Amino acid sequence: METNVKNNGQAKVVNTVQADKTPKFVAGNPVNAVAKAQEKVESKEEETKIPVVASQKVPTNEPSKLEIKAALVEQRPAMNLEQTLKKIKDLNRLSNQREKLIVTIDNLEGFEILQEDEAEETNLNHFQRCELKITDDDGNVFSTKNPFIIDQMSKNIKGLCTEKLTEVEAQISLNL
Fold first, then answer.
1. Taking every pair of C-alpha atoms in the chain, what is the biggest distance, in angstroms?
2. Of the listed ranges 33-42, 61-70, 74-83, the one predicted with least confidence
3. Phi, psi (5° rounding) for residue 45?
């Protein structure tokens, strides 16, 4: 600031500093000239950028689910002798169960084929000369010669054995 004296001896204060009439705050937020310049530069950069198509995948360094599972299997601590022997016994039991189921399924298939061959020779319905007997622990017996019931029982037992076979085979694994 400067003080100038006029003719009458009165002092007049002259402000030589230019008043900045740009707003310092807009809607209660400070205005920054540097930020405005930065926004202009960024908007120009965005206009010159090539748009990214949504179907393009950005490669990531994250492992896939298969890689994670493989890593967990590798990190699993080794089984001790008792655990290994138990696993072997379980595998042996499952293997025996599998073999029995296969034999049962093969017997049912062979039985049905034999009955169909005999039915063709005698012009009878297959299972016509068959009998189904079910005996309980008390000696009570259920018996039927109905070919429809015998056919349905045979198919049902075969289906149950096939389902159980797939379950047993799914349980058999050599992850020691």
1. 148
2. 33-42
3. -65, -40
Angle at CA of residue 58, ends 54 and 63, nearest 5°: 130
Q: Are the beta carbons of 105 and 162 closer than 8 angstroms? A: yes
On whether the CB atoms of residues 151 and 111 are closer than 8 A, the answer is no
Q: What is the residue extent of each domain of the chain?
A: 2-48, 79-171
In sequence order, what are the beta bridge partners of 134? 142
The whole-model pTM stands at 0.49
SS3 67: helix
Q: What is the C-alpha separation between 49 and 26, in angstroms, rounded?
A: 31
Q: Kindly report the CA angle at 120 between 119 and 121, in degrees rounded to 5?
A: 90
Instruction: Give the whole-angstrom CA distance, residue 16 versus residue 24.
Output: 21
